[in-house]
Design a protein that fits this description.
There is one protein chain. With 249 residues, the protein is mainly alpha-helical. It has a single domain, classed as Orthogonal Bundle (MetI-like fold), CATH 1.10.3720.10. Helices cover 86% and strands 0% of the residues. It has 10 helices and no strands. α6 runs antiparallel to α8. The radius of gyration is 22 Å and the shape is globular.
């Protein structure tokens, strides 16, 4: 436990020291301000309510897109991994969407649906579903045939087989898809907000980009990075370690 906390803390302190050194070499706060110079702007945004407001909108979009992408990707990946014939039909579609640039899907969703929340969440979800599907499909292909045979011998129902045989084997792949999903989804959400929303961290970054205010861009970017790091360390990593325990027991 101390190592799990100490090593990341030391690593982040090293990154902070690198930032301080780079800012000192630059010697221009308009290009790269010192970390402590962001404390004042951060508190002003917090006290005014702007930072919580925009963080909340971005987090809501991340939660919606993450939930939809994981649900759809889990269902598609499980079906494609378990049924080779369906996999052969859907695999070309999967390849197409895996190689379709995120920016293209975002622009198309805005053009087809409009500049609204539905288009924003749909664009993020469509960008992430192929990646989740691919990871879950590989997990479904790796299912133990012995456990499948055992469930058939004991005539387990489909729901019982899914709960007690398939899902425990699939859990590490779901955890990996969730971790990578959060990391990718929030970045795409910022692009969606940058291009076509009137709230959120991406919108604020766009605003301060137009004003050439590097400090405020960093305030909003780092604030959301801090939230995502907390989600990663407090929720996703402990969950992933838990679902992998049966493989190392």
């Amino acid at each position: 436990m101390p190592e799990r906390i100490g090593v990341p803390a030391i690593s982040l302190l090293g990154l902070l020291a690198l930032w301080i050194g780079a800012a000192a070499l630059t010697a221009d706060p308009q290009i790269l301000p010192q970390p402590f110079a962001l404390i004042g702007p951060f508190w002003r945004e917090m006290l005014s309510g702007e930072l919580p407001y925009h963080l909340g909108h971005t987090l809501l979009r991340v939660v919606w897109a993450f939930g939809l992408a994981m649900t759809l990707g889990l269902a598609l990946g499980l079906v494609m991994g378990r049924f080779p014939r369906i996999d052969r039909w859907l695999d070309p579609w999967l390849v197409v969407f895996l190689n379709l640039p995120a920016l293209v899907l975002i622009v198309l969703c805005y053009l087809w649906i409009g500049l609204n929340e539905t288009a924003a969440i749909a664009a993020v979800t469509l960008n992430k579903v192929p990646q989740v599907t691919t990871m879950i499909r590989e997990g479904a292909r790796a299912f133990s045939r012995d456990l499948d045979a055992m469930s058939a011998v004991y005539r387990m129902s489909w729901t019982a087989r899914l709960r007690h045989v398939l899902m425990p084997q699939l859990a590490p792949f779901i955890a990996a898809a969730a971790r990578s999903g959060v990391a990718v989804i929030w970045k795409i959400v910022l692009v969606v907000e940058f291009l076509g929303r009137s709230s959120g961290v991406g919108f604020q970054i766009h605003l301060y980009f137009q004003l050439f205010d590097v400090g405020m861009v960093l305030v909003y970017a780092l604030s959301f990075i801090a939230v995502m790091l907390a989600v990663e360390w407090l929720l996703l990593q402990p969950w992933e370690r838990r679902v992998r325990r049966w493989r190392t027991a």
